[in-house]
Amino acid sequence: VQLQACGGGLVQAGGSLRLSCAASGRTFSSYAMGWFRQAPGKEREFAAAINWTGGSTAYADSVKGRFTISRDNAKNTVSLQMNNLKPEDTAVYLCAAGTAYYDYAKAYRYNYWGQGTQVTVSS
Question: Of 39, 45, 55, 95, whose Cβ has the fewest other Cβ atoms within 10 Å?
């Protein structure tokens, strides 16, 4: 599976962005999907995850209520709608695909990673 993320950019605090991740291959619906982020000098951290059908989602406490993850298996895409952005949301956002949904917050559970897209939130 190859993943290509896009949709990042520069936005003011309180604004919104929608990230998308396009996946190649016919087995997209077999993978749980996750979004992680990594700020300069910091470790990669979990943001959101969604299971194979889209029927189950999970969020980090830091983004809960502001971010929404969704997927379209017919289009092989997963999206992350980010609202009420804060300067601390500034990071490179990466999408990932994994065969297991348990331990969804653990990066090692994901088998494939996209290249990331930069999100910068100004105060």
Answer: 55
Long-range contacts of 103-109 (CB under 8 A, 24+ apart): 104/32, 104/34, 104/46, 104/49, 104/58, 105/46, 105/49, 105/58, 105/60, 106/46, 107/36, 107/44, 107/46
Confidence at residue 17, expressed as pLDDT on a 0 to 100 scale: 98
For 91, residues 6+ apart whose C-beta sits below 8 A from its C-beta are 37, 38, 39, 42, 118, 119
- DSSP reduced 3-state for 48: strand
Q: What is the pLDDT of residues 20-70, one digit of tens each?
A: 999 997 789 999 999 999 999 999 999 999 999 999 999 999 999 999 999
